[in-house]
Amino acid sequence: MAEARMYCAIPSSKKGGATAGKGFTRRCAKLVKEQRARIYILRRCATMLLCWYIHGDD
């Protein structure tokens, strides 16, 4: 779960001005999208396991 601790770091060099900002935004958007996908998968798995537990072998 080390990826969950990832964060959007501000580039150390401010060369490029607006292009550095776009790269930063794009990188953060990519990380957010990736984390949302992981949370979605975990939620689906938890729901499936809970349903199996509740319904069991009737």
TrEMBL record:
One GO cellular component term noted in the UniProt record for this chain: plasma membrane
Which UniProt keywords are present, listed alphabetically?
Cell membrane, Developmental protein, Membrane, Transmembrane, Transmembrane helix
What domain of life does the native source organism fall in?
A: Eukaryota
Compartmental location = Cell membrane
Instruction: Give the record's GO biological process terms.
Output: negative regulation of cell population proliferation; shoot system development
Q: InterPro entries, from UniProt? A: DVL, DVL_RTFL_regulatory
Please give the coiled-coil regions recorded for this protein: none
Record membrane topology: Single-pass membrane protein
Pfam families, per the entry: DVL
Q: Which family does it belong to?
A: Belongs to the DVL/RTFL small polypeptides family.
UniProt-recorded name of the protein: Uncharacterized protein LOC109706858
Organism expressing this protein natively = Ananas comosus
| Gene name, Swiss-Prot/TrEMBL | LOC109706858
